[in-house]
Design goal:
363 residues; alpha/beta; OB fold (Dihydrolipoamide Acetyltransferase, E2P); Rossmann fold; Ribonucleotide Reductase Protein R1, domain 1; 3 domains; five-stranded mixed barrel; globular; binds magnesium ion
């Protein structure tokens, strides 16, 4: 019998993908709800508990599949409400949402694990960018993850049908498009209908598009902090700062995430018309490959120091450059091969763990 609290976090759904999963005696399965600096918020059969990774897990993860992320199922030992649970082993993942770490070729960063739905949120209070929608959609092509486009803030535009039509005509017919207004609560139930009991959905999109507002509407309570109109200005100040998981009343799990923009295409960075001031300054740096960080006689650093260059503006420029690197690393690397190897490795690790515990139990 699966514990009902774990079931509400999708454990039954998970075991459909891995029917042979076995939990050694004295251990129990738990799901990572949030990742903190020093540990995890876990959904366990005793409710929500704080958990810490064992030294063995920390050691093992530093050079292979990485540490558990939001959505991961793990094997834990519980010590009651007043002591942290110990996280011993990650269980295999049936799907991941990941990105390559900006600026590195080899490192993949898992954003969420064991998900079945990906909602790409694009807001209607701005000009529609189908390119951007496509880039976010390209975050995964996992066959276990259905992708849906959400046009948010439908109350703020008058041409919603036109926008839906424009997106539909560009995208594959397998990708649905729904319009919602979280403030007027229209279309919210359409989103909810995609998230079956035991399923896990992730919401991604630029900062300020209304991801947290939509999740609040789905939860029917103001659980998540929402950005005020002034700060939601797409300049990199995120209201949500962590990926976090919530259970819907009618079943199903949703993961909120901070706004991300890493699926930007390189053409938009090169020859971008957004940063002519920085580009011009960069031409005046003493060294041609100047990174504008530690080099002497750097025109950019000088301009920042005397206030003629806005530091927020420059930060944004640097961020865009990192994204360009990221994009370049994406196109020349066989990500799916690396992913397959990782999945295999994780499964082997888990199987070894179970075998070892079983042997110890028999001794
Ligand atoms: N008019 C209108 N405003 C909305 C709607 N949904 C969200 N907003 C507003 O948009 C702003 C940003 O909303 P958030 O939900 O914080 O956006 P977010 O995508 O979670 O942003 P980050 O956490 O920074 O990634 C807030 O001021 C919301 O009140 C909507 O349906 N209609
Ligand atoms: Mg948010
Ligand atoms: Zn410089």
């Amino acid at each position: 019998m699966i514990n009902s609290f774990l079931a509400s976090y999708g454990y039954s759904n998970y075991t459909i993908f891995f029917p042979d999963i076995s939990v050694p005696e004295n251990f129990t399965a738990a799901r990572v709800v949030t990742v903190h600096k020093n540990g995890y918020t876990l959904a366990t059969e005793q409710g929500i508990l704080f958990g810490e990774a064992t030294g063995r897990l920390l050691y093992a993860s530093s050079f292979d599949e990485g540490l558990p992320q939001v959505g991961d199922w793990v094997l834990v030992t519980l010590y009651g409400a007043n002591s942290p649970a110990m996280v011993h082993q990650m269980l295999p993942r049936f799907s991941v949402l990941s990105r390559l770490m900006p600026g590195t070729k080899a490192k993949e960063q898992v954003l969420a694990a064991n998900i079945t739905k990906l909602f790409v949120v694009e807001s209607c209070d701005k000009e529609l960018s189908i390119n951007r929608v496509e880039r976010f959609l390209s975050a995964t092509s996992d066959k276990h993850i259905q992708r849906i486009v959400v046009l948010s803030k439908a109350d703020l535009c008058s041409n919603i049908a036109e926008r839906i039509g424009a997106i539909k005509s560009r995208l594959a017919s397998t990708i649905d498009v729904v319009a919602v207004s979280s403030t007027e609560r229209t279309g919210v139930s359409k989103v909810e209908a995609y998230i079956g009991s035991g399923e896990t959905a992730v919401f991604i999109g630029l900062s300020g598009v209304g991801k947290s507002s939509l999740i609040n509407a789905l939860l029917d309570e103001e659980r998540l902090k929402v950005g005020d109109v002034r700060t939601a200005d797409h300049r990199g100040r995120h209201t949500s700062t962590a990926r976090e998981m919530f259970v819907l009343k009618r079943g199903g799990v949703v993961i909120d995430s901070p706004g991300i923009r890493e699926f930007r295409l390189t053409e938009q960075v090169e020859g971008s018309d957004l940063f002519p001031d920085v580009e011009e300054l960069a031409l005046q740096c003493k060294f041609s490959g100047c990174t504008h960080t530690v080099e002497p006689q750097c025109a950019v650093q000088n301009a920042l120091a005397n206030g003629t260059l806005d530091s927020m503006h420059f930060e944004n420029y640097q961020k865009m450059l990192r994204e360009k690197e990221y994009y370049l690393s994406l196109v020349d690397r066989n990500l799916s091969q690396a992913r397959k190897e990782k999945t295999k490795k994780l499964f082997k690790d888990y199987a070894n763990f179970v075998k070892e515990k079983k042997r110890l139990g028999e001794e």
